[in-house]
Amino acid sequence: MECLSIVQFLENKSILVAGATGFLAKVLIEKIMRVQPKVKKLYLLLRAEDSVSALHRFNTEVIGKDLFGVVKEKYGANLNSLILEKITVLNGDITRDDLGLQESILEELFQEVDIIVNSAATTDFDERYDVALGINTYGPANILNFSMKCRNLRLLLHVSTAYVCGEKEGLVLETPFNMGATLNGTRGLDIENEKKIVDELLKKLRAESAPEKYIASTMKELGIQRANKYGWPNTYAFTKAMGEMLLGHLREETPLVIIRPTIITSTFQEPFPGWLD
Fold first, then answer.
1. Which residue in 1, 51, 185, 200 has the most C-beta neighbors within 10 A?
2. Are 246 and 158 in contact, with CB atoms under 8 Å apart?
3. Among 196, 199, 167, 206, residue whose Cα is nearest residue 184
4. pLDDT tens digit string along 95-142?
5. Which parts of the sequence belong to the Thioester reductase (TE) domain (predicted)?
6. 66: Cβ contacts below 8 Å, ≥ 6 apart
């Protein structure tokens, strides 16, 4: 079997990137544009109210960054035509079915997409539990469901975090999480039940006309409590771990890779040293 390099593998591939304004996604987009201009298409999914707002976010929060300086020098006056040919900006939301995309683009994506990279996440350690569950836990499941409709899918790459392993010392193996697994051995973790707890508490608070500030703080406290109960230090790590569980449980034959980056700092060498968003 021929062993292709990553650059070769990406040639003539259509790639959907979720969370396109995030740090890692920007670095990925920049490198693909710089080293593999023969990529067929980059579909970039951004949270925005409409396509105009999504394009504005792309221009200011992605291509407008200093990170793309080398790409701009390389292509010069041809950069705009390259972007028009290779990049399609989509306004969507991974917390919704079919990623909140308009029906007019769905059939094209189901036919064309070869690779999906999910780097969409909320990375606040003490995020509201309802928000973190929606993005970090159920978001990956929605991405997976979407990927199963892509007829030519070669790879679903999910960006998780090494923090899912909790606070440990020594060698930490990259062991996948089974559904309901916990870090401290406490039994009873049920993701659907976690969502039910959130929904019921939100319903109760809103029935009592609780102020939004109080609801937000209550949701933050709930996330920390639920994470600590099962051995995770914060809501971020807990909800990311549950996202991995859902992917592993639901994947069927989907070609899935989960990566767990550790602390992410600035660029080391490419496109230049020291860039940090």
1. 51
2. no
3. 167
4. 999 999 999 999 999 999 999 999 999 999 999 999 999 999 999 999
5. 17-277
6. 275
What structural domains does the chain harbor?
A: 6-259 (3.40.50.720)
Of 123, 118, 121, the closest CA to residue 254 belongs to 118
Q: What is the pLDDT of residues 165-213, one digit of tens each?
A: 998 889 988 899 999 999 999 999 999 999 999 999 999 999 999 999 9
As a whole number of angstroms, the distance between CA 180 and CA 108 comes to 36
- Name the CA radius of gyration of the chain, rounded: 20
> Is residue 130 within 8 Å of 218, Cβ to Cβ?
no
Residue 43 and residue 90: Cα distance in Å, rounded? 7
Residue 155 forms beta bridges with which residues?
115
Write out the two tokens for 123: 């990375």
- Phi and psi angles of residue 84, each rounded to the nearest 5 degrees, phi first: -65, -35
DSSP 3-state helix, strand, coil percentages of the chain (rounded to 5)? 50, 10, 40
Q: Is 172 helix (H, G, I), strand (E, B) or coil?
A: coil
CA dist 201 and 186 (Å) reads: 23
Q: What 3-state class would DSSP assign to 160? A: coil
Q: How far apart are the first and last CA of the chain?
A: 40
Angle at which helix 191-207 crosses helix 212-229, to 10 degrees, equals 160
Point out the residues that are catalytic: 236, 240
